[in-house]
Amino acid sequence: TGFVENEVVQAKDKNADWRPRIVVYGENGETKVYNLPVGVRVVVQHNSDIDAGTVIAKRERATTKTKDITGGLPRVVELFEARRPKDPAVIAEVDGSVDFGEDLRGKRRIIINADAGEPVEYLIAKNKHINVQKGDRVRAGEALTDGSVNPHDILRIEGVNQLAAYLVNEVQEIYRLQGVRINDKHIEVIVRQMLKRVVIVDAGDTDFLVSDSVEKYKVIRENQKVQARGGKPATYEPLLLGITKASLSTESFISAASFQETTKVLTEAAVCGKVDYLRGLKENVIMGRLIPAGSGVAEYANRRITVEGQQEEDKPEIKISQTSLESLAGLL
Predict the structure, then answer these.
(1) What does the UniProt keyword field contain (predicted)?
(2) Is the domain covering 250-292 a CATH 1.10.150.390 domain?
(3) Would you state the pLDDT for residue 87?
């Protein structure tokens, strides 16, 4: 057809400091430089005139042939198991502006000049597509390259709330493409269980050890006791666990044994002499007991609700007015 395209290929000498790029000269004398990764095809010719918004290079993307829910389920498993991607995206750790330094050992060097603090450097393979250009502003947590984002990096850089929002949005996106509607609360319950444990950084005056993996509510409760005595509380960092590991690390060995590795869990519980206090839902269902939720909570077991003027004798009761009952009925 006579149509010619230039493609960027990997240099034979990987240590050569070659940087394929396109330089666009504006009418007002302004110049803009676009770095090109390996595998990109340049669709414009040298010295050709272009307008703002013109495509100057294209990159082929691999697509899946099947577009059903089964194609997205491996991604759901990857998210809920908190697996680290094989080729994760590099994400910015600080807010700042992007700059490029000299290549090192065949890799590109990206420098982020932080708004506060020292510059941060990243070494990126030349065959990876870089999403940012020189002078761009980035914020902490923004992907600098293509690829799946490592959820552990999001937790470390942006915190628990941003990680929870990321996991919910990623899972919803997979189901939404198939027209499946799921309320966020179902995914949020799973994410909450994945984030229920923390790692002790400084034990302070508590009985914990550094690097211990402990449920968050235990640390908070212990810190309150220590602070009441005037001691130093423990400091901790959030920990992300996959659903399999989170289920097996629960306090109840009956609940853990009902999920996976039953023999191993029961053997370990017997050797350690563990006691299950049946505080959760699953273990109470397994034992055939009333679950500790709603009317099953011990505090409400012997209480009665009576209307004023119709009190029962010799029974614990909660006095409630007729107006309050009507308001409650309206809510239900």
Answers:
(1) DNA-directed RNA polymerase, Nucleotidyltransferase, Transcription, Transferase
(2) yes
(3) 85
